[in-house]
Structures are given as structure tokens and as C-alpha cells.
Amino acid sequence: PFNWDQYLARTRSEAAHWTFFRQTPAPPYNGFKVGMKLEVTDPRIVDTVCVGTVVGVLGSRIRVRFDGTDASNDVWHVVDSNEIHPCGWCEKNGGMLQPPMGFKSDPGNYHKFISKSLADAELAPGRLFKKEPPAPERNFFQKGMKLEATDPKNHALICVASVGDVQGDKIRIDFDGYLGSDYWARFDSRSIFPARWCNFTGHPLQPPGRY
């Protein structure tokens, strides 16, 4: 298994401190089970909340499928994300559930579809949803610091990475050992994690290329 202490010593680098991240000091408990229903925002459409089903549980993260769509639209969230809510949250807050992008049936029948979908389903209990941690007051990252980051091409993967550059509120994520795989993220992104986060949560970590 990948050993952060050995890797940091070998590369003579330092890990970014956990306070630089929008994550809790102790990773949140994940009590979700596959098949549970919840409400989830569709990141591709502004202010759109849809019904979703938990289709994967990994460490402190869940994989959610928008009901009425296929796997290509799935989203991953840490369980303390403010993008996921118990069923009924949207209506309680004066909103209205909307069909997600990629909905396979007639959007006009979405509410009928949802009623049927929720009829005998197991709804995720409210106690499983946690308050999202606050963002750090500013971008504290420095070039060369090590961290763990989600692969934007495959959100199931979290990989060993470095801060390649810093510009304003953004940092460039470089995956160690993989050339040309870099991407830019905000310093308060929920898709970047302190070193050893995967180890603490029981989530697999992709080691550097040629490790």
C-alpha cells in the first residue's frame, strides 16, 4: 500500500496542511446504503434539485444517480456536501423538484415519475446528512505541496497529486507521475483532500505513476 511518510521523505516535499482544505479535520461518518433515495443538485443546470439514488458508497463519499438517467450522469459527493439533502428538503424550502439533464422520459411527467420512484423506496434518513464545513478564509496553498485529488475524468478515483501552480483563488492540480493530466480547481473545492484522507476514510488511493 502507498505510504505517505515514505513518499514525502523520498520526494523531499511537504503535505498541504488540513486547514487549507474545505474538509473536516476528522472525515465524516458515512451511513448511506446503496438504494437509498435523496435529493441532489444537478451541477449542470443552475438551481436544479432532483431525486437521486445512492448507487455507490466509498469511504466518506457516495455516488448518486439521478433517477431517470443512466450512469454517465452520476455525481460523487462527500457525505457532508451541501449538494445532497433528505427527500422533502426542496419543497420545504419553497423549491420544486426538476428533471435532471439526460432525463430519459417526458420532462412533463417528471413529478408522476418521481411519485412512482419514491413509492416503496428507502429514503435516506436526515441524520446521515451533515453540515458542510466552512471554506478557509483564503488560498493558503503553495507550489509543490502534496495532496489527494479527485480525477476529473473518473470521479471514482482519488489520486496522489501536487500543487503545480497558484493563481488567485485557484490551484493547478498535477497528478504525480502522469504528464498532461493537470487541471485547475478552486482552493475551496470539495474534490481535493489532505494527504492521508483516503487512508482515514477507507477510500482507495491511486499511487503516483511508476510508483
UniProtKB/TrEMBL annotation:
Lineage: superkingdom:
Eukaryota
Q: What would be one Pfam family of this protein?
A: MBT
The answer, when asked if Repeat is one of the entry's keywords, is: yes
Keywords per UniProt = Repeat
Q: Name one GO cellular component term.
A: nucleus
What PROSITE patterns does the record tag this protein with?
MBT (PS51079)
For biological process, the GO terms are: regulation of DNA-templated transcription
N-terminal signal peptide: none
- Stretches forming MBT repeats: 2-100, 108-208
Under PANTHER family, the record lists: POLYCOMB GROUP PROTEIN, POLYCOMB PROTEIN SCM
This protein's name: Uncharacterized protein
Q: Which organism is it from?
A: Nematostella vectensis (Starlet sea anemone)
